[in-house]
UniProtKB/TrEMBL annotation:
Keywords: DNA-binding, Transcription, Transcription regulation. This is DeoR family transcriptional regulator. InterPro entries: Carb_Metab_HTH_regulators (IPR050313), DeoR-like_C (IPR014036), DeoR_HTH (IPR001034), NagB/RpiA_transferase-like (IPR037171), Tscrpt_reg_HTH_DeoR_CS (IPR018356), WH-like_DNA-bd_sf (IPR036388), WH_DNA-bd_sf (IPR036390). Pfam families: DeoRC, HTH_DeoR. Residues 3-58 form the HTH deoR-type domain. GO terms for molecular function: DNA binding; DNA-binding transcription factor activity. SUPFAM superfamilies: NagB/RpiA/CoA transferase-like, Winged helix' DNA-binding domain. Transmembrane segments: none annotated.
């Protein structure tokens, strides 16, 4: 069983029961106690669970994720400007990954004449890509109806077959210490995997995402360039700039 699949099953078990014993996980996943213990340590470091004596309990999720339709109507002009700039970073014959998201989907019209190949986990994205006759692949896996995103162990396994020149990600929150974050652990695993498979990574986010926190950590600030409309003056600009490159399209 793949490491990512094992962790997903641990989280799924916790979501169902709230708390689980180490011995039960060993039996359920048919793995050694040391392997499960290591998984629990790593998941705790990612903020996805809390280890307790003899097992683990779920960290309660306080952040609810808006639907894809809800996201699409927020800051639409800023998202288009961010997407247009992001598309300029794409070169002819690039092999790219477009994460499911309301800003990344705005990139698609700008890719029409780029002669690129696109992999995506977004159901709404693949429809637009096909309409514009852009060579594209949709990851297989579990469909998340709320956001029209493909996630889960099958998607994680599927994405390992690719290597990307560039990946373009959405995010729900950008935190000075915790990095890029999302409400869904399964999406976090997939986003992290995509970044590890890329030569260059970009996160597309409007100003409202800065200094926010969320449930699941995707990856560190240092691992991606941020393309945003502007960085709000009240935010700790120096902290962000020290950790990563930030491109403000409205400046």
């Amino acid at each position: 069983m793949l490491n990512a699949e094992r962790k997903e099953r641990i989280l799924s078990t916790l979501e169902h029961f709230g708390v689980v014993k180490l011995t039960d996980l060993v039996e359920k996943l048919n793995c050694s106690e040391s392997t499960i213990r290591r998984d629990l340590i790593e998941l705790e470091e990612d903020g996805l669970l809390e280890r307790v004596h003899g097992g683990a309990k779920l960290v309660k999720q306080h952040n609810l994720e808006p639907s894809m339709n809800e996201k699409s109507f927020k800051n639409i002009q800023s998202k288009r400007e961010i997407a247009a700039y992001a598309a300029e970073q794409v070169e002819t014959n690039d092999f790219i990954y477009l994460d499911a998201g309301s800003t990344t989907i705005e990139m698609i019209p700008f890719l029409k004449d780029k002669k690129v190949t696109v992999v995506t986990n977004g159901l709404m994205h693949i429809e637009k890509l096909v309409q514009l006759q852009i060579d594209s692949y949709l990851l297989g896996g579990k469909m998340k109806a709320h956001t029209k995103a493909v996630i889960g162990a099958v998607a994680l396994d599927n994405i390992q077959n690719y290597h990307f020149d560039k990946v373009f990600m959405g995010t729900n929150a950008i935190h000075e210490r915790s990095g890029f974050m999302t409400p869904d652990p399964e999406e976090a695993f997939l986003k992290r995997a995509a970044v590890h498979l890329a030569e260059q990574s970009f996160v597309l986010a409007d100003h409202s995402k800065f200094s926010e926190a969320n449930f699941a950590k995707m990856f560190e600030l240092e691992q991606a360039v941020i393309i945003t409309d502007f960085l709000p003056e009240e935010q700790n600009r120096e902290t962000f700039i020290q950790k990563t490159k930030i491109i403000e399209v409205e400046k």
